[in-house]
Amino acid sequence: EDKVVQSPLSLVVHEGDTVTLNCSYEVTNFRSLLWYKQEKKAPTFLFMLTSSGIEKKSGRLSSILDKKELFSILNITATQTGDSAVYLCAVLTNTGNQFYFGTGTSLTVIP
Amino acid sequence: GAGVSQTPSNKVTEKGKYVELRCDPISGHTALYWYRQSLGQGPEFLIYFQGTGAADDSGLPNDRFFAVRPEGSVSTLKIQRTERGDSAVYLCASSLMRAGGGTDTQYFGPGTRLTVL
Question: Residue A7 to residues A11, B49, B64: CA-CA distances in angstroms?
Fold first, then answer.
């Protein structure tokens, strides 16, 4: 059965800390892995990763994929209170165009 | 519109009633997805449309759930004989089809929070 597992489930840090969120997956016919940030209702897109070892970067956020070990990490440096959210990892397969989501990591950044 | 829109934003109904949830995707996006998200969980896939047809409805939990997209744009998720366990946020997402096949990044709507009393 295809599955996506995120860790940790929740995390509390102080402003300025650096955090690393993990996403591991077991899917058939992997196509790409996506990271989303969910603050209220709608997840907002952060990154899409298709190739191993190529870092995607946007400001203080960066992510990388390891297709051999079947995982991805999302790094956030110099965290701010506005980074508080649930971070979702989703994997897209070539079969049926389904997106499989993990349960998310709840990040709380305290001043 | 600029993004995916969903209506209503909140729906409270009684057990056994019928509800319809609407999704208006980004213009030009041929792929449309419905998800259900319970508290503390990631979105759970329900159904995927490519154009007007349901390309994959394997996530629909039972025959009380049905979705349509008659003109390949707006979609309606229909739930018959609602149960308390149907309470969740229902998310809709749309995406472009890539050249050569396959879908691209999904863009989510704000969701509809359904509460079945």
Answer: 9, 31, 34
Does residue B91 belong to the interface with chain A, where contact is any CB pair within 8 Å? yes
**CB–CB contacts below 8 A, A to B:** 65
Confidence of residue B104 (pLDDT cuts 50, 70, 90): low
Task: List, for residues B43-84, the tens digit of each pLDDT value.
Answer: 998 998 988 887 788 889 999 999 999 998 999 999 999 999
Residues of chain A in contact with residue B105, where contact means CB-CB under 8 angstroms, are 34, 45, 48
Paired tokens of B79: 């739930």
DSSP state of B97: B
| 8 Å CB contact of A42 and B109 | yes
